[in-house]
Amino acid sequence: MDVTGGAMFPNLSFLAKACLTISHGNAVAERGFSVDTALLTKDRLSLEETTIQAVRVVKEAIRLYGTATAVQVTWSMINAVRQARSQYLSYREAEKRKTAAEDKRKKEAAQLTEDVINAGQKTDDLSRKMHDVEQQERDQLTEQHIAQRPIDEAASKLSAAVKSNDMQAAKVAQVMLDIGLE
To answer: Would the pLDDT of 81 be above 90?
Structure first.
């Protein structure tokens, strides 16, 4: 007690009780690991966590009752089992839908990727065709310029022949024009 008559350490009793409730070992946790090890055989390694928990609950209930035959089967237990089965079937159906949706998404993504690749190839093909057409246009323009020179020369000779009234030179210029225009 302190000088005022109050408790000197009011929280000391709470601390002592908390310290006394601390486990002195980890036997309970180790026992749980042993149960899990016994439960998960080579054939059962793919069980989901919820299934493992359910098996452990059933085993613990049987342990509490002593034997499986000592467990009282009630209507609520029967209804719970029926609901569990329907819930399981609903869960499986939802998983199937989820898997189907994921497969559909993957298929659409693959199709989109293929479409992008095809579009790129079409773009490349069109680009090559456009380049080929441009090259043909340049070649045709070059040929046209080459063909235009004799025509221009023949036209100037024809004009000179007409001015000088030289019919022989005009005929030659006319033949040159006919050949150039072909």
So the answer is: no
